[in-house]
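agent> Task received from the user: take the single chain below, predict its 3D structure, and emit C-alpha cells. No templates, no multimer pairing.
agent> Plan: (1) validate residues, (2) run structure prediction, (3) serialize to C-alpha cells, (4) report one or two observations.
agent> Step 1 OK, no nonstandard residues flagged.
tool_call: predict_structure(input=
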Amino acid sequence: MKDEFQVLLFYKYVHIAEPDTVRDNLRALCERLDLTGRGIIATEGINITLEGKKEDTEIFIKELEKDERFLNIHMKRSVGDGKAFRKLSMKTRSEIVSASLGVCDIDPNQVTGKRCTPEMLHQWFAEGKEFYIVDMRNVYEHDVGHFAGSILPDMENFRDLPKITKALGHLKNKTVLTVCTGGVRCEKASGYLVSQGFTDVYQLDGGIVSYMEAYPNQDFEGKLYVFDNRIAMGFYTDDKNHKVIGRCESCGASSEHFVNCDNAWCGKHFILCETCMDQQKTDKGIKTCVGKCKMRHPNKIGSRSGRFWGRMKQYFSAIWNNN
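)
tool_result: status=success, residues=323
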C-alpha cells in the first residue's frame, strides 16, 4: 500500500518562557517521526508547518498535546506528497510572524478581531451582507488566488501593516474581515485594526485554507499560495468551477507557475508561464521579471551571486511571512 502523506499547518499564541527548550523538544520529536517542515518558536507562541506520513503526523499531534499549553490548536490538515519540504528547520525568533510593530505590538490574547467561521462567511456571501474582506497576505500571494471582491493591499511583507492600515481609514466604521493563509497573521492584523479605532473587525477563523476546504471553488478564486515546495494548492482543481486567475507577467496568459527573478538586486517572486520562461532562457540564458527590473542593474542579471541572493530573499521571505 502506498504511503499517505499529510501536511499540518498550525499556530498558537501562548506565552512560552523557555522557547529554546520547546524548540529542542519539538525538533527531537519531528526527527523521531521523520517529519520535515518549518517551525518558529517565540515567547509569544508557535507557528509550524510539517509534512510526514499521515500516521506519524497524527502521533505528533498527540505528543504535542501532552503539553497543556498546546491544547485546543486548530490543526489544518491537507494532502501531501512527501516532497513539500527538503528538510526540517526549527528556529527560535522574537515573533512567530514578523510584524515589527514595536511599542504598538499586539498580544492576540488581549486584543484581536472577532472570529468569523467559514460557515458564517459563507452565509454572509449568501445573504449579501455588507462587509469588506482585507487580504493580509503579500502581493505575490494575491496574484495566484484571492476572494472575489476583496481588498488587496500592496503588501511586500507583513511589516507593511501600519502603512496599509492608513489607507483603510474609510472602513473604520464598516464591517471588516481580515484573511490570510492559516490565520496567524490575522490574529495580529485584526487586533492592530482594533487598536487603531476600527469598530467592527473580524478574522477568518482557520484562515483561507479552512474556507477552501469547506467550500471548494466557491468565493475564493484561484489557488492558495503556500510556503513550501507545492507553491500553490487547491481543492478539486479539476472541477469546472475552479478558476485560474494567475497571469504571466510577460504575456498575460493564464498561469500559476512561479519563478524568482535572476537579477541579483531583485529576486522578485512572480508568475511566469513555462512558455515565456523557456523563451527567456533561449534568448538570454536567464529569467527576469518584466519592465524596469532588468534595466536597473544589467551587469548583475544572471550572475551566480544574483541567483544565490534571489533564492535567499525568497527563502527568508517564506520564513518570516509564513501563514
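agent> Step 4: summary for the user.
The radius of gyration is 20 Å.
agent> Done.
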